[in-house]
Write a structure and sequence with these properties.
Elements: H1 2-24, E1 30-33, E2 40-43, E3 48-60, H2 63-82, E4 88-97, H3 104-113, H4 117-127, E5 128-129, H5 133-139, H6 146-159, E6 164-165, H7 169-173, E7 176-180, H8 184-196, H9 201-220, E8 229-230, H10 232-240, H11 249-254, H12 257-268, E9 279-283, H13 285-290, H14 295-306, E10 317-320, H15 325-337, E11 342-343, E12 346-347, E13 350-351, H16 353-358, E14 368-372, H17 378-383, E15 388-392, E16 405-409, H18 414-420
Parallel strand pairs: 3-4, 4-7, 9-10, 9-15, 10-14, 11-14, 15-16
Antiparallel strand pairs: 1-2, 1-8, 2-3, 5-6, 12-13
């Protein structure tokens, strides 16, 4: 568990560093999150700087601990040098007992003497000339068998003294810098100071900082590189449009979870105060899998509170992830047994948009609509006259529309969802 916590804190630190670099950047600079090269790539019209973050509160600095990220940079330097490109490299690292710098001699000595098998197998062929064509063919294979790995290790052991570097470590070192990183809370306060120069202190701490965290976490997860490129102006413009804290699991991990959820519940209470709006909920497959035994009780509890006066209230819409059709069928049966008929929009076994929208093939006293994600689009939700859409869990922004309110509640626990939508007055953990 401690190792997992340490890994998560490392990611949180990287997000903090990304926020800080964005806020420190110039107007003509672009920041690539989870860059092509390293964790953070900074591009100006005339240069490229790449930053690798390492955060270890419970480890002492050792050259072996920073060798792999430096080797990645060295390999990239060699490739760029061959193409005539110039890149600067920064290793930004925090250790319980840190060092002010990493010397070239210490790194070179490590390369000459290391017995680390993973280092040898992953990097040696990329920085050393391998004259044996058979060994080189094994070395460049992306996937290696156990005996192939052993052949490499045996070769390196027998030829270690004669291996020749094909990249100049001395030249690389003129482009490389080791920066001792700041402790987590120190860097966080520096970010706060940056935001406090833009907005008041309360807005900076309760809105801008957590939402910048969501912004960076969401952008970092994008698969397309162009979607991970941001600027200072983009970040500040985005933050200025947000009215409440955006919920995702990284924000909840980084902040005071109870306070964040309490503030979000307070913000959402206005949307759940009246029952004349049509609300739609999209449940991600991950959320459904984690809470499958509690989905039916949640829906029944929700209907008992928010659809207890059919003449006045509007039927909600519940949308299940595509990998949970079996759970959907189980829920439909459960609701039927509780005398809560459902419009699930099918004629025979086929989904019909018209039936789903116009309620033409279901019981007249239906209590809600339920279907799978694959059947839904923003246009269909608009045809259903949806007023509020809640995306539960982590999903792509497929259903956004200017014609209804959209809120993503990326929570993992159904009790947190019950609390946010007003089914529970206390947050149960």
């Amino acid at each position: 568990m401690r190792q997992a916590d340490s890994t998560i804190r490392g990611y949180l630190y990287q997000f903090n560093k990304s926020i800080y670099e964005i806020l420190q950047s110039n107007d003509d600079e672009k920041i690539t999150l989870e860059g092509v090269i390293e964790d953070i790539d900074i591009q100006s019209p005339t240069s490229t700087t790449t930053i690798q973050c390492k955060y270890h509160e419970d480890k002492k600095y050792l050259i072996s601990g920073v060798a792999a990220p430096i080797l990645e940079m060295l390999c990239h330097y060699y490739e760029c040098h061959a193409l005539g490109k110039t890149v600067s490299y920064i290793l930004y690292a925090y250790y319980e007992e840190n060092t002010d710098s990493v010397t070239m001699d210490a790194f070179s000595d490590f390369l000459s003497n290391t017995k680390d098998k993973d280092i040898q197998i992953k990097y040696f062929h990329r920085i050393y000339t391998i004259p044996d064509d058979k060994i080189l063919a094994i070395a460049i294979k992306p996937q290696k068998k156990k005996d192939e790995k052993q052949s490499l290790l045996d070769y390196y052991k027998d030829h270690r003294e004669s291996l020749v570097l094909k990249v100049s470590i001395e030249d690389f070192w003129t482009r490389f810098r080791y920066e001792p990183a700041e402790q987590f809370d120190v860097l966080k306060e520096k970010i706060m100071s940056q935001f406090e120069s833009v907005v008041d202190i309360d807005t900076a701490r309760t809105l801008y900082y957590p939402n910048s965290f969501s912004f960076v976490a969401n952008r970092s997860a994008k698969s397309d590189v162009k979607d991970r490129i941001v600027s200072k102006a983009q970040l500040l413009e985005y933050l200025s449009t947000q009215k409440s804290v955006l919920l995702n699991r990284w924000t909840l991990a980084a902040m005071d979870q109870e306070k964040v959820l309490k503030d979000k519940k307070k913000y959402l209470s206005g949307y759940f105060a009246g029952n004349t709006d049509i609300r739609a909920f999209v449940f991600s497959d991950e959320f459904l899998e984690a809470n499958k035994d509690n989905i039916l009780p949640f829906l029944i509890e929700y209907l008992n509170k928010y659809f207890k006066k059919p003449r006045l209230h509007r039927q909600p819409i519940f949308i299940f992830g595509n990998n949970n059709s079996t759970l959907q069928q189980s829920v439909l049966l459960g609701l039927y047994q509780y005398q809560k008929p459902v419009n699930y929009g099918t004629i025979g076994e086929c989904f019909s948009e018209d039936s789903f929208v116009n309620n033409t093939n279901c019981a007249p006293n239906f209590t809600c609509k339920i279907t799978l994600e694959k059947n839904i689009s923003a246009n269909l939700l608009e045809r259903c006259q949806v007023n509020q859409l809640y995306v539960i869990g982590k999903m792509e922004d497929r259903f956004n529309s200017p014609n209804y309110f959209v809120e993503t509640l990326d929570v993992e626990n159904i009790n947190a969802l019950r609390y946010l939508v007003g089914l529970s007055r206390k947050l149960e953990v």
